[in-house]
Design goal:
about 550 residues; mainly beta; Jelly Rolls; seven-stranded antiparallel sheet; five-stranded mixed sheet; about 45% strand
């Protein structure tokens, strides 16, 4: 059984007496009059944000009335679409005071109402809107009126949030925006954009409970955090907790990266369609967005977020295109000359070297000093070599006179590194020494004592100088020492106190080109780092891979 209109005009405490309503059958009417059927409606909570789920083409209705005896007072309704545009409206159904008095006293002849189907009342639409912007309606509420809100999505299933309040004295759920809510772009570079915005009045009044959060993406602006989270979910990514609360640790998905530095939290959500970067910056009203791609258009949104209520307000979004990356400086390589190139691991920039061949056969030599290096060589625009190297490496190439070679170098790690490079057409005069099959140093566990260690390394057929150095280290220094070793630095970079010996050695039989050395005078139970330097005729050193050995504690 449907309920009659009379039920809606009773004070809320009388609505519980549903037995009075079940005996009265509502009239058959058009869609507009059917809008107020109670079984299609829900009570909208006062002072709380309500999440409303909408099915496509199916309207959803909410209503609210004031408590009995309350004087006319202002009320506000804020609706936040979280995805597609929606339609929503506010209708007011106002009955005559005499009818409401009878209904409240319970002396109304409900049978007469059922027969006449006439109720002394007026229905008016006081607001309607269609779109996906956050909209707020401010009006006056009356004791003698029932308000109905209707929401409709015509594109697809979606959800929205609705906030109703009749108490304008206890502060705002949503942070306030300044009179000018625009975001200003005050600086643009190839990989950065600097933004500024005017302070929210809420930040000035409640600094400890308010913060600003930014959204950066390559698709479009978002009119609310709710809409941004929906878009991230639809792209297949799991959304972390609301930005306002995301300073608490939580588990990230594999496609998410969280960066926390200088009290700023960045969350990067990666997907095939691009990335959405979320950055919370506290109460600062300027921010430089780093690590952007050159010559790319980005959209920037700023939200002021209430940390206590999790509610947010959106500034007017903006967009900007980063500048083109300047052409990398081209370094000309000279035949036979060795240069050292420093690689920026953080910015991952390419370093370009160019060489014009004066002979048909040439040889490139690369000696990484620290870390792994990506080497890419092209000849007249075509790739002839591409490899990641971590040790001394030669590339012998054939071509024609005046061929143009382009060498591009990049660090494969986040830390800075460097590499020595040489190109030469004189194969019979190599600057780098002839290398053995392995640059590893071997230690003999059975020959270890409390005061000595025996090590061995491979030599070559070429007469070369080998220098051995030792360094006493602690257990917690091992990893750092091995990672920070500069393999291009020679013995001159070491203190004299660390030098053990230098000797010349070679053997025409490679199977016998092995040398051993016992280092004495060591302390018991102590870690030592051993290095061997190989120096050829030109004096350019090559450092073997460091070896860490611990002397016996008891003998």
């Amino acid at each position: 059984l449907k309920m009659s209109w009379a039920c809606f005009y009773l004070p809320l405490r009388l609505l519980m007496a549903v037995c009075l309503c079940h005996s009265i059958r509502a009239p058959t009417s058009t869609f507009k009059s059917d809008l107020f059927n109670f079984y299609h409606s829900l009570i909208l909570a006062d002072g709380k944000e309500t999440t409303v789920h909408l099915l496509k083409d199916i309207p959803k209705r909410y209503y609210f009335v004031l408590e009995e005896g309350r004087a006319p007072a202002p009320f506000t309704i804020t609706v936040t679409p979280c995805d597609v545009p929606i339609e929503w409206s506010i209708l007011r159904h106002k009955a005559s005071a005499s009818f409401l008095g009878k209904a409240a006293r319970g002396d109304h002849d409900t049978q007469e109402i059922s027969k006449s189907q006439k109720i002394p009342s007026t229905v008016s639409t006081i607001f309607n809107y269609k779109g996906n912007s956050v909209e707020t309606y401010v009006g006056m509420s009356y004791y003698s009126a029932l308000y109905m809100l209707e929401f409709l999505s015509t594109e697809r299933d979606t959800h929205i949030t609705v906030y109703l309040t009749t108490d304008t004295t206890s502060g705002h759920l949503y942070p306030e925006l300044p009179l000018d809510p625009r975001i200003d772009i005050i600086g643009i570079g190839p990989t950065t954009v600097t933004l500024a915005w005017k302070h929210s009045p809420s930040v000035l009044q409640h600094r400890e409970n308010i913060q600003y959060c930014l959204l950066v993406n390559e698709k479009h602006n978002y009119k609310s955090l709710c809409a941004a989270e929906t878009a991230i979910r639809s792209s297949g990514m799991k959304v972390p907790p609301m930005l306002a609360l995301s300073l608490s640790p939580y588990l990230l998905e594999p496609q998410q990266v969280m960066i926390l530095s200088n009290s700023e939290l960045s969350i990067i959500n990666r997907a095939s369609s691009g990335e959405v970067r979320q950055i919370c910056v506290g109460t600062k009203n300027t921010y430089t967005v780093p690590s952007l791609s050159a010559s790319t258009q980005y959209y920037f949104d700023v939200f002021v977020v209430n940390l206590l209520t999790n509610a947010s307000a959106a500034y007017t979004g903006t967009f900007a295109r980063t500048l083109e990356e300047p052409e990398p400086k081209m370094t000309e390589l000279k035949d036979g000359k060795v240069i050292q190139v420093v690689l920026d691991g953080k910015k991952q920039k390419l370093n370009s070297l160019q060489y014009q061949a004066r002979h048909k056969r040439i040889q490139f030599t690369f000696q990484p000093c620290r870390g792994q290096v990506q080497v890419h060589i092209t000849k007249n625009g075509k790739t002839v070599a591409s490899e990641n190297i971590s040790g001394l490496r030669y590339f012998s190439l054939k071509g024609n006179l005046l061929d143009t070679y382009l060498v591009q170098l990049r660090s494969t790690e986040q830390s800075n590194s460097s590499v020595k490079v040489q190109v030469s057409s004189h194969f019979h005069k190599p600057l780098f020494p002839l290398l053995p099959d392995s640059l590893k140093i071997k230690s003999f566990s059975k020959l270890r004592t409390c005061s000595s260690v025996t090590i061995a390394w491979l030599g070559t057929q070429q007469e070369s100088k080998y220098c051995v150095y030792k360094k006493r280290i602690q257990d917690d220094q091992v990893w750092m020492e091995l990672q920070s070793a500069d393999r291009c630095a020679g013995p001159e970079s070491r203190p004299r106190s660390e030098k053990v010996l230098c000797r010349y050695f070679h053997d025409t039989n490679l199977q016998r080109a092995v040398t051993t050395e016992t280092i004495r005078g060591l302390d018991a139970g102590t870690l030592y780092l051993f290095d061997v330097y190989l120096m050829g005729p030109s004096g350019i050193p090559v450092r073997y891979y460091s070896k860490v050995v611990k002397t016996r504690k008891k003998c």
